[in-house]
Specification:
Shape: globular
Distance between the termini: 76 Å
Largest sheet: none
Mean pLDDT: 80
Helix content: over 70%
CATH class of the largest domain: Mainly Alpha
Number of helices: 8
CATH topology of the largest domain: Rna Polymerase Sigma Factor, Chain: A
Structural class: mainly alpha
Order of helices and strands: HHHHHHHH
Number of domains: 2
Number of strands: 0
Low-confidence stretches: none
CATH architecture of the largest domain: Orthogonal Bundle
Length: about 170
Amino acid sequence: MDESEFDEFYSSAFARITGQVYAMIGDRDEAQECVQEAFVRAWSHRGKLVRSDHPEAWVRTTAYRLAVSRWRRVRLSGRPADRALSPKVQTEAADETRIALVAALRRLPANQRQALVLHHLCDLPVQAVAREVGVPEGTIKARLSRGRVALAALLAPADTTDTGAHHA
């Protein structure tokens, strides 16, 4: 993969992968930083990416693993990540539906959230999700099933009807 091919790959995939990682981890700034770092690593492994059937999956998996590692490091250190040295990032405003979806996804167990994002937002078949995550297809199917039920409950509109008696 030469420089122009890599630039094209970056341009076409960065926003999409960032959105997918954001849905998995729930923090847009962190997602952008991890995807950027994953692309830096991809550049140094571009020979491997040429031979890969799914270079986007490689970058997405790397970004997700970076996010998990950073989260663990911050959690273990007991202090928040230092953003003082990072450049200010401008992001577009997200619509309310996307915000609600990400908020609901954050409440799911990480393995269900990852399976739902890869299958429904990344549009990967169950077999590809299983391969990317490294678990059997049956496990992915179970995570998808449980995740859909939990997500539906979290996204269901609250019942606003008053069925109780009114007291005067």
